[in-house]
Description:
- With 248 residues, the chain is of the alpha/beta class.
- It has a single domain, classed as Glutaconate Coenzyme A-transferase.
- The protein is built from 7 helices and 13 strands.
- It has helices at residues 8-12, 33-42, 62-66, 82-90, 100-112, 126-129, 193-198, and strands at residues 20-23, 47-50, 70-75, 94-97, 116-119, 133-136, 142-145, 151-154, 157-163, 167-177, 183-184, 200-210, 230-233.
- The strands form 3 sheets. Strands 1, 2, 3, 4, 10, 11, 12 and 13 form an 8-stranded mixed sheet that branches. It has a 3-stranded antiparallel sheet with strand order 5-9-8.
Amino acid sequence: MDKIKKSALEAVKAISSGATVLAGGFGLCGIPENAIKALRELGPTGLTVVSNNCGVDDFGLGILLRNKQIVKMISSYVGENKEFERQYLSGELEVELVPQGTLAERIRAGGAGIPAFFTPTGAGTAVSDGGLPLKYGEGGKVIKYSEKKEMRDFDGKPHVLEPAIKGDFAIVKAWKGDRFGNLVYRHTAMNFNPMMATAAKVTIAEVEEIVEVGSLDPNHIHTPGIYVAHVFKGESYEKRIERRTVST
Length: 248
């Protein structure tokens, strides 16, 4: 029952090349910073990564992208990463853009054992009709487009069928955790981390503080330990933001 690992490197060492990895957080907030750095050091390649975004050029998932470890991103927002843009347009990176609420629900459905669901979001657009460029080739020519999805009307409105998302691994960031793997998140870390923790075969949680079993209020545990395989304490956190706007 003791799921504590001594370091980020020890916790993520099982993540192998070609794996699908769910990475929690929102933008640069509440992300598993130490797990990402450990993956860069260990160097698995050919990763498919599911995340709200891909960080920035020198932080977050951006460091894996710059290290050519990611071959496909499934995201909802990618606007702050120039290297992401370069790799996508040059054909080095496949990108599946998903409406943000749909992305969250696809992951939640994966953890709940729901294979697919209907949503009105994106119905009647390229999201449902297909034709979104997923991958470019030489000369800027699109070599792979998104496919048309099943549609159905509910209450007189068109809905699109969206498949669930599941991962081989999930790397999540929590505020507190115990050796059984029970987790409590804080503030922005509640975005994507809780549902990703349920949607992977192996969930790896990095926490700011490891507490004694029984010290967490059972009524306030966000992720029960049954979903978590490994827990480690992060060494340090930059907790950066993507962009700061200064008003005058």
